Predict the 3D structure of the following.
Amino acid sequence: MAFPLISHDPAVMSGKPCIRGLRITVGTIVGLVASGNSRERILQAYPLLEPADIDAALAYAAWRMEEREEALVLS
């Protein structure tokens, strides 16, 4: 699945998934939403964000939660 607004750069926030290369992590956005902050409040607190960035962060987090890691079985 492609997430064009989510970037991974080892030089930015230690490679954590960020919004458009900004130093705003997906985890920060998801945490703010989970804490009950409105989109309007988040956008006020982070003026570089756009509404689509919040949607992208939530979609990315949901996708990551659905990933399954299977144990390697050696015969």
Summary: Residues 6-66 form a domain with the Arc Repressor Mutant, subunit A fold (CATH 1.10.10.10). Residues 51-66 form the longest helix (16 residues). The beta strands are 6-7, 18-19. The longest strand covers residues 6-7.
